[in-house]
N-acetyltransferase (Babesia divergens), 174 residues
Amino acid sequence: MLTLRRATIFDLAGTSDCNLVNVIENYQMKYYFYHLLSWPQLTNIAVNSNGNVCGYSMAKLEEDIEHAGHVTAVGILRSYRGMGIAYKLIKQSHDAMKEIYDCDSVYLYVRVTNWAAHALYKNKLGYSIDEVVKQYFYDKEDAYSMKMTFPDGELRCGLIYVVQSKNGGNKRLK
């Protein structure tokens, strides 16, 4: 059984471990703290039944583009790939970008050789290639800068909170 949820400060060591096993780009712990403290709703994890982080996504707001988000990093342990985890984690970030931060678009960079990621971003999440960025990654590999604009009126599958009113009735909050 897997649980997908927002990360807490107690999850960052496990997130870092997941990154070290899976992703070519590795980050210092302060990078995870920065994301979590700056945009807490945009760092999501998948946890297995043993409580271990088996996937994560980190996102932020674009600094130079108003109402835009940026998916910074996604990593899924190899034994958990192909289960739709990355899709669900990124969708959680998309929902938070729209509902909490009022974003209307989102960007990301992906290696030009990462065909599995291209398929996810283009075919399932609706991204398109914006431009090729030469030698973007530390090993000089090129990146695709990809963009996705949130459709107007898109049905959002974000969190719904139910609170009980004083008279005993329930009220839904988004």
